[in-house]
């Protein structure tokens, strides 16, 4: 098993539930007992032979696996129990299972219940409404990057041009209000968003805590991943190093192994789920390694078992300030998903349609995210803002700023952080970051410069006459927040975007497999074909 080779750069968590109730577990069913005995036996054998750190990583991972098996077993037993209605004959351990944990806390069990319903819904939609038209495709759309062409099914979020993103129907302010937080009135925990994206339901704090624990248990990265990154020059772009690490993680793909063994189509979603959750759990370790390698002393900071996903990522980057941890929670939540047509999400989905595993899909998605018109814009924004300061100082007047914007445009460049392929108003992800800044860093000079840009840039872009959306997008704001708390290295920013986007892309991939979505293969045509088609259409 791949985790046997895990090294010290892993996290893991102590499954206190498992330790406390292991006796009941061993007694709960013959299959569970056999599985647990063999796991414990193999762990003991390993612990004798291997070094201590390997044993600890393995033990943590093995215990988390047990806890997962345990929760799934609980769910199966609960359902069996209701069917047979044999309340009195169930042993103590089963009664404990029902009252203490149940399938409510296990995301996998929740999905298992939801998937058949959704499969039915899609089947019905196809058979009853398969021929309903969703609009006309025009030549402009074909030549214009497919803007406005509806052509993808994406369950986890939907983008409205005026309102912005809704995650499973919830706007960003609604998520901030409804999703569990690390502290009262705090920012949403990204694990909560992951639960929401996958199930369509707002999770309880207990569900989010269980998911945090599961992710920590999966946060183990083999040494060869770090060695693959180490093979690159330190000067390689952080996104190149991050993408290389993600590709190396692919060696652990459960989907690839299951497919090689001939798993039936109806079960594809299960190893996809395993890969997706492991990938989400592991990318912060790879990302923080890249950060430490390029900008710090290369020391690896381990997972802290007392922290959630966002808090942990912040501390692994070396930032322990509570405000930075809150920022990271907000950052990961809002960058996670932006419906299916954006370059990174669409790439992940397209590659996944060939049944490539989640690691391959996500690595491909990252390469799209690394483009300056997409995720790399967050790097470009801070570098551009710093160039403004270098040339004109922090207290630049609005008139000077206007001149600088025109200089950029006249130089044939875009103003980074403004405009959007779909949005036609200020991005709500910009707005919530602005609110965060007003609360935590109102006096920051770069934040004040960003505020001035909000006044200066839109009228200029409107004056250009061709820009469809002159308003700021998510990337216009994120850099100054990170910079304020000491994460000043702009070239690293797109890696943070990437860590967050793993949540959206992987969530949808699970549903792609659960719904049996087909190979994506749109039709393309040549200019000749288009001209002939249009001439014929004109003649008739
Ligand atoms: N600065 C200068 N020109 C712009 C800008 C801008 N911020 N936004 C759009 N335009 C230009 C665009 O280049 C195009 O020019 P041309 O016809 O000469 O090729 C024209 O306006 C029409 O473009 P739109 O239809 O408004 O925008 P489109 O959907 O093609 O592109 C972006 C959307 C986001 C690529 C574009 O607005 C842009 O380049 N923005 C700056 C980069 C950026 O912030 N990207 C991040 C997007 C969010 N994300 O994280 O991915
Ligand atoms: C995103 O978050 O993916 C960007 O805003 C780009 C997009 O939605 O097209």
From TrEMBL:
<dbReference type="InterPro" id="IPR016142">
    <property type="entry name" value="Citrate_synth-like_lrg_a-sub"/>
</dbReference>
<dbReference type="InterPro" id="IPR019810">
    <property type="entry name" value="Citrate_synthase_AS"/>
</dbReference>
<dbReference type="GO" id="GO:0005759">
    <property type="term" value="C:mitochondrial matrix"/>
</dbReference>
<feature type="active site">
    <location>
        <position position="475"/>
    </location>
</feature>
<dbReference type="InterPro" id="IPR002020">
    <property type="entry name" value="Citrate_synthase"/>
</dbReference>
<dbReference type="Pfam" id="PF00285">
    <property type="entry name" value="Citrate_synt"/>
</dbReference>
<keyword id="KW-0808">Transferase</keyword>
<dbReference type="GO" id="GO:0006101">
    <property type="term" value="P:citrate metabolic process"/>
</dbReference>
<dbReference type="GO" id="GO:0046912">
    <property type="term" value="F:acyltransferase activity, acyl groups converted into alkyl on transfer"/>
</dbReference>
<dbReference type="InterPro" id="IPR036969">
    <property type="entry name" value="Citrate_synthase_sf"/>
</dbReference>
<feature type="active site">
    <location>
        <position position="420"/>
    </location>
</feature>
<dbReference type="GO" id="GO:0005975">
    <property type="term" value="P:carbohydrate metabolic process"/>
</dbReference>
<dbReference type="InterPro" id="IPR016143">
    <property type="entry name" value="Citrate_synth-like_sm_a-sub"/>
</dbReference>
<dbReference type="GO" id="GO:0006099">
    <property type="term" value="P:tricarboxylic acid cycle"/>
</dbReference>
<protein>
    <recommendedName>
        <fullName>Citrate synthase</fullName>
    </recommendedName>
</protein>
<feature type="active site">
    <location>
        <position position="374"/>
    </location>
</feature>
<comment type="similarity">
    <text>Belongs to the citrate synthase family.</text>
</comment>
<dbReference type="InterPro" id="IPR010109">
    <property type="entry name" value="Citrate_synthase_euk"/>
</dbReference>
């Amino acid at each position: 098993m791949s985790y046997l080779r895990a090294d010290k750069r892993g996290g893991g968590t102590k499954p206190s539930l498992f330790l406390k109730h292991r006796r009941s577990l061993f007694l709960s069913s013959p299959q569970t007992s056999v599985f647990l005995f063999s796991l414990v036996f193999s762990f003991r054998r390993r612990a004798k032979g291997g070094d201590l750190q390997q044993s600890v990583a393995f033990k943590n991972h093995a215990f988390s696996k047990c806890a997962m098996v345990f929760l799934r077993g609980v769910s199966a037993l609960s359902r069996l129990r209701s069917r047979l209605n044999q309340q009195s004959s169930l042993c103590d351990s089963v009664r404990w299972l029902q009252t203490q944990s149940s399938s409510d806390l296990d995301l996998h069990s929740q999905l298992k219940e939801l998937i058949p319903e959704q499969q039915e819904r899609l089947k019905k939609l196809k058979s009853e409404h398969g021929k309903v038209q969703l609009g006309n495709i025009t030549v402009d759309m074909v030549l214009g990057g497919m803007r406005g062409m509806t052509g993808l099914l994406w369950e986890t979020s939907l983008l409205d041009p005026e309102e912005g993103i809704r995650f499973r129907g919830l706007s960003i302010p609604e998520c901030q209000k409804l999703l569990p937080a690390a502290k009262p009135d705090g920012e949403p925990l990204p694990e909560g968003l992951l639960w929401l994206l996958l199930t369509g339901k707002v999770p309880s704090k207990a569900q989010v805590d269980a998911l945090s624990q599961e992710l920590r248990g999966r946060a183990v990265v083999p040494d060869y991943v770090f060695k693959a990154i180490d093979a690159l020059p330190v000067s390689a772009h952080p996104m190149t190093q991050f993408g290389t690490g993600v590709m190396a993680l692919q060696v652990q793909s459960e989907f690839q192994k299951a497919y090689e063994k001939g798993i039936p189509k109806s079960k594809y979603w299960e190893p996809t789920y395993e890969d997706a959750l492991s990938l989400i759990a592991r990318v912060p370790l790879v990302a923080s390694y890249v950060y430490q390698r390029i900008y710090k002393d290369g020391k690896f900071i381990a997972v802290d078992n007392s922290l959630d996903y966002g808090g942990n990522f912040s501390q692994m980057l070396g930032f322990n300030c509570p405000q930075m941890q809150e920022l990271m929670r907000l950052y990961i939540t809002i960058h996670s998903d932006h419906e299916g047509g954006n370059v990174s999400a669409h790439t992940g989905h397209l590659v996944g349609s060939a049944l490539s595993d989640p690691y391959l899909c996500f690595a491909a998605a990252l390469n799209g995210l690394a483009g300056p018109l997409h995720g790399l814009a967050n790097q470009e924004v801070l570098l551009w803002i710093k160039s403004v300061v270098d040339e004109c100082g922090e207290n630049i007047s609005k008139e000077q700023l206007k001149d600088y914007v025109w200089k950029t445009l006249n130089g044939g460049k875009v103003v980074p952080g403004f405009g959007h392929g779909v949005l036609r108003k200020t991005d709500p992800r910009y707005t919530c970051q602005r609110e965060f800044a007003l609360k935590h860093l109102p006096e920051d000079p770069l934040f004040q410069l960003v505020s001035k840009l909000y006044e200066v840039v839109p009228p200029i872009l409107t004056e250009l006459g061709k820009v469809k959306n002159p308003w700021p997008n998510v990337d216009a704001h994120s850099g100054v927040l990170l910079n304020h708390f000491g994460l000043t290295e702009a070239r690293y920013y797109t890696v943070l975007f990437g860590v967050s986007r793993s949540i959206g892309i992987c969530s949808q991939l699970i549903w792609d497999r659960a719904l049996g979505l087909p190979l994506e293969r749109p039709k393309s045509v040549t200019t000749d074909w288009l001209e002939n088609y249009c001439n014929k259409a004109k003649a008739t």
